[in-house]
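User: structure tokens for this one?
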Amino acid sequence: MKIKFWGVRGSIPCPGPLTVKYGGNTACIELRLNDPERLIIIDAGSGIRELGNHMMAHDLPRGPIRTEIFLSHTHWDHIMGFPFFVPSYLPTTKLKVHGPFNLEGESLEEAMAGQMTYRYFPIRKDWLAADINYIELKEGQIDLKGGVTLRTKYLNHPIMCLGYRFEYNGKVVCTAHDTEPYRNLFAAGPDDPSHDETMAAEGELIAGEQNKALEDFFTGADLLIHDAQYTREEYETSKKGWGHTSIEHACETASRAQVKHLVLFHHDPMRTDSQLDRLAEIHCAPGRYGDMKITLAREGLELEP
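Assistant:
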């Protein structure tokens, strides 16, 4: 498996002189399998535009494009690049777009089409000439054929959101793009009039079980790409409930799960290159979390688990 990062930011693109090193595009990852050659794309943030251009120059000359896109969820920073993905305008292209089933009654196809109405964009979804098949996923295990197994796991985010675990040729790559640690929502404290001891105990148990289940999902991964939008101080003081994780929590969770290589991803759009360099010095130092290697994601980074 070969990985390349085309977009590593969360929330909104942030190009400019302060984000040149790590990049300003939102989430998009290329996953290549070589036997047989196969391209999987994880998330369609603004980074997919450049990936699409790359595919037009390097993949199309070798034959019609066949690719699979796996969306973690349909928040805009994870789908905004799709209307600019040039291969989707070719009648010879075949696309499978996977994403989580949602509870709002709107299909994945309808959610993707929502950003391609005249109110927001000059081109409608119907103009996409490619053969596109939309596939809704729930938590479980899927045989993707060709020796690829996919496991999916619900994440803790304000909308249905999936983590992916790709297993191929003895290697494991996991993603957890937008997720927040589960916490006890009933822990009001004994001095609060609404405090219910039974509910508080039950909430603590469930939160612990869910965090353990996610840790198990990561267990033994060769590569884990994990949301790390905030520092612990930022999270604890003002970001709880926003659906994202602190760098420290991601590192601790991955370490307990015996992940071999953790890539910190979904950087806050306000974070400058120099600030990310400083965070890398602190958290990516060899030995800080045992034998686990830790890297900050940046555009253009290529890895082989």
